[in-house]
Amino acid sequence: MRKLLLTALVVASFSVNADVFKEAEAGLKSQLKDPESLQLRNMYESSIGVCGEFNAKNSNDGYVGFQNFHVTLPFSGKSSVSMSDDSPVTKIICKK
Q1: What per-residue confidence (pLDDT) applies to 91?
Q2: pTM, whole model, 2 decimals?
Q3: Quick one: which of 38, 56, 58, 88 has the fewest CB in 10 Å?
Q4: What are 28-68's pLDDT values in tens digits?
């Protein structure tokens, strides 16, 4: 019984995380000129959203290199996306 309960909790927490990450990915893609070029790595949940690194093609069809991002997930309404290494908000929200 304990194993079943533990397995259920792990599966439930994984599916919640997967949904949060999918929502963050959709928010990032909505900001890009070439959404299909999006590459993500080092994603993790913060206290109010998702942090990680992204890379995508620019107007010249070249990748620009990985940069930090955070997506603040909505409590109601639309999510907020910040895609900048220099953003002070990203540095505060995404402290590990």
Answers
A1: 79
A2: 0.73
A3: 88
A4: 999 899 999 999 999 999 888 899 999 999 999 999 899 99
Cα four-point dihedral sign 45, 51, 57, 63: negative
Whether pLDDT at 4 is above 60: no
Q: What is the DSSP string of 15-84?
A: HHHHHHHHHHHHHHHTT-SSGGG-EEEEEEE-SSEEEEEEE-B-TTS-B---EEEEEE--SSS--EEE--
The total domain count for the chain is 1
Distances (CA, A) of 24 to 3, 30, 46, 48, 89: 32, 10, 12, 12, 16
How far apart CA 57 and CA 39 sit, in angstroms, is 9
Q: How confident is the model at residue 1 (pLDDT cuts 50, 70, 90)?
A: very low
